[in-house]
Every structure is written in structure tokens, then in C-alpha cells.
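For this section, I looked closely at the sequence of one protein beside the C-alpha cells encoding its backbone, which the following lines show:
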Amino acid sequence: MKTYLIEIKLNKELKEVEVTAQETLLEILRNKLGAIDVKDGCGKGDCGACAVLLDGKAVNSCLTLALQANGKEVTTLRGIGNEKNPHPIQNSFVKHGAVQCGFCTAGMVVIAKAFLNQNQNPSRQEIREAISGNLCRCTGYEKIIDAIQNMALESKS
């Protein structure tokens, strides 16, 4: 099987990785680059757990071919913030109890970050629409919506 050497900037660090034409961005992030903060939920774009930022735009990494990321910047949850230096949106998720089991949280935070970069004053309905591609089985979404709305309000002050 033919392989290609691609270069991506993963969380601001330049990486080279050998991929096949069939490999998804999710597969190379988790299996070849060790980015286990990107969750493998459904593998078909239904759950949003694998969301990452590709040049600042939220994408489902399970639907994105690795070759499509060549020469681009990929930001995962750890690129947004980590345990030692959390992003305010991560703090808001914790503050509002929007992190019950944690499986959907990585994708939710990535989607929230991309959404708030585009809309700093969203309504609750706009937030619902923005996260509609992300499934959560634990929180009932209200705490997630509260966390995103609170982040938007705090960033205005």
C-alpha cells in the first residue's frame, strides 16, 4: 500500500507522519501521534467526540482524511488548554458540571471554542444549534449550554 509523508502542526508542534490514502485524521492522531484526547466515538460523524480544529475550523476527524490535513494546523483539546493551564471554556465546563462522564467533553469544548470564536454573544438557541452535532448521554445538554453561555458572558466583561 502506497504511503505519503505529511506534515501537520499539531497543537503548535510540527509533526511529520507517514499515512496511507485511506487513513483518517482520527486514526493518525490517536494511533501514530498519541493524541488520545481526541475520542473515537462512532467512526461515522454522528457523535462529534472526535472534533478537532483544522486551521481553526471544527471538523470531525473521523470523516477527515489524514491527507487533507497536510500542511495545516490541527488543534485538539490539549491545544486549547491542559490540566496545568486550562482554557476559560474548560473552567466553565467544570464550574457548571458539564463534564459528567467526560467522553463527549473533548469534542464539546472544541466545538464551543470554534463557535465562540465566531459568535461572542450567542443565544441559548444558537448554542443548541452549534452543539447539535455532538452527542452527550449524561448531562441532558443544559449544563453544557450553561457553560458555553457563561463563557460568552464572561468574555464580554
Summary: The mean pLDDT is 94. The chain has two domains: 3-76, 88-156. The two ends are 54 Å apart (CA to CA). The beta strands are 3-10, 13-20, 51-54, 57-60, 73-75.
